[in-house]
Amino acid sequence: MVDGAWWPYSRDAAAELPHLIAAIDQRLGRTVLRIGVYRDAWQRIARRIPARGRQVRVGWFRHSDPRVITLVFATGEPIALLLIPPDTAAGTAEAALKLTAQDTTGLATDDILILASLPPDPPIHAISRAGTTDSPACWENEGGSVIAHDATGTGDRTPAPA
Q: Coil, strand, or helix at residue 26?
């Protein structure tokens, strides 16, 4: 289950995550401390992303849903965002953004993707790397990254409110 959605411009986590963090900080009034992403779905994943007066740690994992990114806040309660692939057609992406802005209680990620006509399995663009531990306990030592898109056509690709 997800709390919202994010439609990034690219799969370059180092370029996309700062915008996501700033939008979440501003729109939700919450301080993002960590982000968890599926490792092989991103390019250029940084261990830390500079944000307003802090460094946000990014963890990358291989045993998580590649279609979801997780944000952890100072309050400790995480939220999960559906990752809409950057190359998704505007109409389809907008449908997914609208669906996740509604009450999605009981809907699995696959259900949302089917309702919005998104492909159930995102293309993996990065090469897998073996020999890493993929658990939140390794966030202190691991790095990672994330992305955002514009459903309004204004160039403001920020996450749908959770």
A: helix
d(CA 161, CA 81): 10
Q: Please tell me the distance from the alpha carbon of residue 130 to that of residue 127, in angstroms, as a whole number.
A: 10
pTM for this prediction: 0.67
Identify the CA nearest to 81 among candidates 123, 119, 35: 35
Pick the closest to residue 62 from 84, 36, 32 (CA basis). Answer: 36
For residue 4, what pLDDT is reported? 87
Mean pLDDT (the chain, rounded): 74
Cα separation, 69 vs 72, whole angstroms: 10
> Which tens digits make up the pLDDT trace of 85-95?
899 889 888 88
Please give the pLDDT value at position 30: 87
Q: How far apart are CA 162 and CA 159, in angstroms?
A: 8
Tokens of 31: 């301080």
